Structure formats: C-alpha cells, structure tokens
Amino acid sequence: MGLLLLRAAVGIVLLIQGGMKLTQQADAGIGEWTAGWVAVASGFALLAGFLTPLAAALALVSAIVLWIYEAPAPGASLFLPKLLAAFLGAVAVAIVFLGPGGFSLDARLFGLREIVIHPRQS
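User: That's the sequence. What structure does it adopt?
Assistant: Structure tokens below.
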C-alpha cells in the first residue's frame, strides 16, 4: 500500500504540473512542451503502475527539465518550482529503486517478485 500511495502522490503532482506547463504558456519552447507531455504521460503510467521504473525515470527527466526551464513567476506553479522539481526527482529515484509494488499493472502483467533469503550454512 505504501508504494501505491507513493506512486499516486507523484503521479498526481506530475499530472498537475504537466497540465499546467502545457496550458499556461503559449510561447513555450519545444523543451517545455516535451517536458509537459512527458510529465503527463509518466504521471498516468505511475498512477496505473505500468512500466513503473521507466515511468519513474521519465518523471526524473521531466523534473530536471522543469528545474531548468521553470521561470520564477509567482503563482504560476503548485509549489515553489525549484523545490517541487527537487522533490519529484528524489521521489522518482526512490520509485525506480523500489519498483511498482503489488498493486500495479506491472504486478499483473509480469508477476510478483519474491525475494528469498536462505539461512546461513555454518
């Protein structure tokens, strides 16, 4: 359940930030448009738990691009832009390392992974 909550939190924030990036700036460059679409796509994938490590890696890339292109306009973002990008990047790395969890499409499509630790032989 913890991984589901983590994926959902990051997915929702990515959907909001990507949607805001796509709708607010008419004169945005190709990098900003690409980052917005990547954020929306990886947000949907994280919410569904589909190809989670890839989606989280794309979330990290979009967080880095948002960090670079974010203008310090007050009220234009959900949170402080640089702080949000750093938070998304850190949590995306954690999701890449932790994986999708049991409540995901990845678990249904590819099966659950079980780690077995054998006792030491003395």
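The CA atoms of residues 25 and 84 lie 19 Å apart.
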